[in-house]
Amino acid sequence: MLGCAMELPSAPPSFRTIVSKERTMRRIAIAVLASGLAFMQADKAVASEEQFLTSLEGKYEGKGQVRLRTNRGPINVTCSFRSTATETTLSLNGRCRGLVVVSRSIDAELARHGGSYEGSYIGAGSGPATLSGKRNGNSLNLTIRWAKEINGDRSAKLSVAKSGSRGLTLTTTDRDPATGKAVVTSKIVLNRV
Cα(132)–Cα(115) distance, rounded to whole angstroms? Predict the structure, then answer.
């Protein structure tokens, strides 16, 4: 049998080799599942953003209070709004009236870019303001950048919050320049009609 190669049976894999291969396979499977779940969650988030925006469409009426400045008392107002929405945009157009003193048109136009919102706001008497922010649950939390100084600065906060299937609450908060404290300058509670 010289010159003839003889195959020797291979040694069975060691326990460590088997465990190491199983761990590697588990890690690969977990990584594949995790990336699949992340993709599904991202897709679900986009769907929920679209559903959220389109759920805001409709005609609304309600009441609230408005402060023309942080250091002034609130004025009771009645308001009516029309909201139009697509999967990526929201438009709020309305009017609020209070006493003989206040009658103001309020318009907000928003566009969604991924998870962020940008747009414009008219209603404070300072000219067109810019809006930017994100959604958190049932609220769009936006920063307002006024066209000129209002209450000692050019920024405020606007929350557009969905309340159940028929309600919408618009809240504007600004800083009082004298105290530095946040003051709700308008809160309007609306119901779909």
Answer: 11
